[in-house]
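Hi support team,

I'm filing this because I wasn't sure whether my run with adenosine-5'-triphosphate finished correctly. The job status page said complete, but I'd like someone to confirm that the output block is well-formed before I use it downstream. Pasting the exact inputs I used:
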Amino acid sequence: MSTSGRKGSLFSKPGRDGRYPILSVEGLSAWYGELQALFDVSFSVNPGEVVSVIGANGAGKSTMLRAMTGLMNRGKTAHIEGRIECQGRRLDRLRTEKIVETGVTMVPEGRMLFQRMTVADNLTVGAYLPGPRAVAEETLEEIYSFFPRLAERRDQPVNQMSGGEQQMVAIGRALMSKPSVVFFDELSLGLAPIVVDDIYEKVRHINASGVTCLVIEQDMGRALAVADYVLVMLEGRIVLHGKPG
Ligand code: ATP
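And here is everything the job wrote out:
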């Protein structure tokens, strides 16, 4: 990890627990036109951690993720101010494709899969950058052994699969880009509790393999159970943060 120490960067100094963060957000505010949705949000994520973000509908969780994935600085209506850094690179002015190149990827709310395409084709989409594309076949096999259900159904269109299986495809697609940081947005939404158990078990494994995870979750029990650190959002601000338990 870079600790290049550019002037004004959080990377110039250790953060929480005396560690250098892999991801840092400093003074992030966001607007949809005149409406301000985020107010001076700051936090950091240490390498290898799972950080959960909880908060009610409208608290600003999705806006924060959109800001961190380059989706708030397109066009004139939505914009952000503040600083977002990952592994020493500023993300707040990058386009989404460039952000993925820095090793950050997202499993979006609603999964956003190509419903008529097969499991294999949906997964392959995640390896569109040259580096991941060069090792795509190998990564695909790793994902099939991680999710045997997807191996069995690799040639099936996604629209014939259950919600839980589709969530596995969305996670697998994110892993195809060989990320070092993954944002998970509302993984439990619309899924049966037993399926959510499986999905969160997979998140733990992904984290144990060295991937840093930021989990946005409305289900507070899940969010607390998986997290090393928790941020609580209310009306566009972080109002509480700390270690769970
Ligand atoms: P949810 O769990 O419902 O997704 P959230 O915590 O993710 O909630 P956001 O979706 O980030 O909250 O919403 C934060 C605020 O921004 C809310 O007041 C919401 O109405 C507003 N907002 C969100 N998206 C837009 C948009 N595209 N245009 C205008 N306002 C928006």
